[in-house]
Structure formats: C-alpha cells, structure tokens
Design a protein that fits this description.
The protein has two helices and 13 strands, in the order H-E-E-H-E-E-E-E-E-E-E-E-E-E-E. It is α+β, with helices and mostly antiparallel strands and 203 residues long.
Length: 203
C-alpha cells in the first residue's frame, strides 16, 4: 500500500509539472507575438484638371507609421496646359536690347533708272552710299557734261533712303525742289542731276 501511495504521489507531481510548463510556454508565446498592425492603404491624390479649383492641402496622419507616403498623379490635361503656357512665354520673350534707341533695318531693295537726258539705264543701290556722277568710279555713272563727277549721293539708312548733293556745281533736285541737306526718298521720286532725270524705285 505504501508503494502504491508513493507512485500516486510521484504521478501527481509529474502531471502538475507538465501543466505548469505548458502554461509558462503559452505565456512566453503570447508575449513574443507582436501586436497586430492595421493595414493602412496608401492614399492617392490626383491633381485637378485645368480650370478647376485646387483643393486645400491636407496632411494624412497615420498613427502606425513614422512617415506618410503620398502618391501624386498629374492630370494629362493640366500637363498639356502648362506646356502650352511655357511655349507661349518662350515665343513672347524678346532678347535684351541695348541702351540706345532701337533701329528698324530696311529690308526693301532700291534702284534708280534714267528717265530722260541720258540713255536708259538702271542701277541697283546695293551699298550704303551710291554716288551719281560723271566719274567712271561712281556707282551710277552718267556721261553727261551737265553732271558733275560726283554730283549726288543716295544713302541707305536705318529708316530708309536719302539723297543729298555731293558738292555739285548745278545742285541736286528732288521732284523739282532743290535738295538742301538731305531729302528722304519715296517710291517713284524723281532725282534731277544736271539735265538728267532719274526715278527712284523700291522693290
């Protein structure tokens, strides 16, 4: 009987130890398991299309993460509108100018043609200064004894063509009026040097 009692006591102690070990292991597993974290979906913010009002900025708070991740998607219509505005701004941008007044460059070509007093001829005014006279080295050569060697000169300036006397004996006339200083020329104006009349032409 005493042997049976001892065996029963040993079995009870073993069962109690196993139960305590199981409880300790379950508690350890419970402590080691990390707390469940809620899954937070990343918000998507779409920029407004052209013409609509932009929403006020908001901060997306997330208590489970240290930083906020925001995905931006640009509306294609807004991107196209921005590119168009940039192109217009580039086209309207003008280069810096100097301190002096702006000058308009004359793009038209001019010529003079003999109307009367000499054989028909025509000269294109390609230089900034084109002389009319009896000297063989001038641009508009007129072999007439009534014309001085360097009778008149036509100057190309920023705003047009001008004629002036070059120190002739008989003077230079424009449309029948003696030129005093310089006279701006218009299309079809007539220049008189001695007995020779020339017509100024723009083309």
């Amino acid at each position: 009987m005493e042997t049976v009692g001892i065996l029963l006591g040993v079995g009870s102690i073993t069962a109690l130890g196993a139960a305590v070990s199981g409880l300790v292991l379950a508690t350890a597993r419970t402590k080691a398991r990390p707390p469940s974290m809620a899954t937070v979906a990343r918000p998507t913010i779409a920029l407004p299309s052209a013409g609509s009002s932009a929403p006020s900025p908001r901060r997306i708070a997330d208590s489970t993460t240290a930083t906020d991740v925001v995905e931006l998607r640009v509306d294609p219509a807004l991107r196209a509108a921005s590119a168009e505005k940039a192109a217009v701004a580039d086209a309207q941008r003008t280069p810096p100018t100097g301190t002096g007044p702006s000058k308009t460059v004359v793009q038209l070509k001019a010529s003079v043609a003999v109307v009367s007093g000499y054989e028909p001829r025509q000269w294109t005014l390609e230089k900034e200064k084109s002389y009319i006279g009896r000297s063989p080295d001038v641009e508009c050569f007129v072999a007439s004894l009534t014309v001085s060697r360097r009778h008149a000169v036509i100057e190309r300036r920023a705003d047009g063509y001008y004629v002036r006397d070059a120190g002739s004996k008989n003077g230079c006339f424009c449309n029948g009026v003696k030129v005093d200083g310089s006279q701006k020329l218009k299309n079809s104006d007539q220049i008189e040097v001695g007995e020779v009349t020339l017509r100024f032409q723009l083309r």
